Amino acid sequence: MQYDVIVVGSGASGLTAAIRAAKSGLSVLVLEKAGHFGGTTAVSGGGIWIPGSPQARAAGVDDSPAVARQYILEVVGETANPALIDAYLDNGPEMVAWLAENSAVEFLISPPSSDWYPDVPGAVNYGRLLSPKEYDGKKLGSDFADLRPAREEFNAPGGFMIDLFDLPYLAAMPSPKSLVHFGKLAAKFGMDKLRRYPRGTRLTMGNALAARLLRSALDAGVRLQKSTAVDGLLEDGGRVSGVRAGGNDILANVGVVLASGGFSANEQLRRAYMPFAEHHVSILPYENTGDGMNMGLEAGASLDGDNLVNGVWAVVSKLTRPDGYVARYAHLIDMSKPGCIAINAKGERFGNEASVRFVDAMHADGAVPAHIVGDAAFVKKYGMGMVFPGGGGLKKLVEAGYVVQGATIRELAGKIGVDSDGLEATVGRINQFATSGVDEDFGKGSEEIDREIGDPRHSPNPCLGPVATAPFYAIRIYPGDGSTTVGLRIDEHCHVLDAGGTPIEGLFAAGLDANSIWRGKSPAHGCNVGPAMVLGYIAGTSLVEARVPA
To answer: How far is CA 513 from CA 8, 149, 326, 452, 523, in A?
Structure first.
């Protein structure tokens, strides 16, 4: 029961640290509390924001660390830690290149994706976001069953997965090229079912990344142990010397990495850090209860002061199924499409539905919960929430109460408990905007970052459409998160620091157990998994450098 390195958690941060250490000859044990490996990463989009990546350079993107640094520091402001920002920018491209050379992890440059603050100097709309290359789950062999499945709420039934690179084909449906593309994917999925795989083996986005990391950890000789909660840290003379797990003391000769996934499922911590905590709905795994952060604090670690934002917010809807499972859907795509509006109890809009920061508008308006509203044409074309494009599942979801249907706007308003006159006036106003293409109230579709998730075939505004075709539909939405941001204070080497700023020997943190290097104010898509992997890589490198020479 002795290893050089013990990693608590098997998401992107933990597995990256484990692979980096194991490939340099250290013995590594990864302990995972859940019954599957992959953590938060496996149910994420999997994108990473890496300015100056090898992929960007190969594509001829002209981007410098100095420009990216200026942008980050302007966005985050005076609370930013320049040493951590520099460590991220320096190690990000190196991490991507190292993994490409030493593991099964591969990234592709993503389609154009704007930084979240396009008016800030240094923002770009292409080249910084990378997406994991899709992966064949069969390459995991028997370990495929140990990989956390992607959320079925975000995919077709049975585990048929869609990739970011499939979206242009989906948008062009039913063109012959799109039909051929999805026909091939459906045929592969059918073969998987005939071979009795529990789900499709074509893995995409975060599930592909988690699978690639898991394959790489196994190949590097990392020992992975699931269904094992860590109860606490062991200390010896002021040094963290191991962990207590499953009633056993397990020693770590070099160090312990805390990467357990934040505290989204911890009710007490949610109430301490989340606005409208009683209505807050996280999409993260239920195992994310703040174990790593709490263990670190018990060992003398410190938090890193007040963040600008305590979570990476997401608009979420939920449905409690007959078996008690709460299905949770993050509205990352549908609210940007033309013909969808979000309303408060007065039946009024209160923000730009296409904004990546729409939850801020919910908090500011007190619209918690709120509703999104669309008409029959919208639902048939784009789907809405857990309703698939084409209206798949609509009838069952109406019967379950997840979707509310009304023959008229006034009837719908009465059913969802909002002001009928207010909603009628709001719909009338948005229909006028749909004709002109200009949202005079909140500017939906006025910025490129809005239009990227809109419908490019719809004019004059790809994000703005009428709500006019009966029947009409509504879904209740809540503020939620796809990541917590409050965590342990670390230095640029991922050492955990005590209250005086001194490193605690033998203790490292990465991922959501470390405080957000953005102070919670993410500068772009990919700024959750990106820091998770980069900090994991830095932690692994620090462990390699800290080992005692033979």
So the answer is: 10, 23, 25, 32, 20
The structure's pTM equals 0.93
The CA-atom distances, in angstroms, between 211 and each of 205, 216, 225, 403, 467 are 10, 8, 16, 34, 41
Q: Is residue 231 part of a domain?
A: no
CB 423 within 8 A of CB 412: yes
CB–CB of 419/347 below 8 Å? yes
Q: How many domains does the chain have?
A: 1
Q: Does some domain include residue 49?
A: no
Q: How many Å apart are CA 478 and CA 476, to the nearest integer?
A: 7
The 10s digit of each residue's pLDDT in 265-312 is 999 999 999 999 999 999 988 899 999 999 999 999 999 999 999 999
8 Å CB contact between 531 and 492:
no
Judging by beta carbons within 10 Å of its beta carbon (0-12, 13-18, 19+), is residue 35 exposed, middle or buried? exposed
341 within 8 A of 428, measured Cβ to Cβ:
no
pLDDT in tens, 371-397: 999 999 999 999 999 998 889 899 999
pLDDT at residue 156 above 60?
no
Note down the domain range covering 356: 313-481
Quote the CA–CA distance of 223 and 233 in Å, as a whole number.
Answer: 19
Indicate which CATH number applies to the domain containing 341: 3.90.700.10
Q: What phi and psi values does residue 422 have, to the nearest 5 degrees?
A: -65, -45
Determine the Cα–Cα distance for residues 223 and 217; give it in Å rounded to an integer: 8
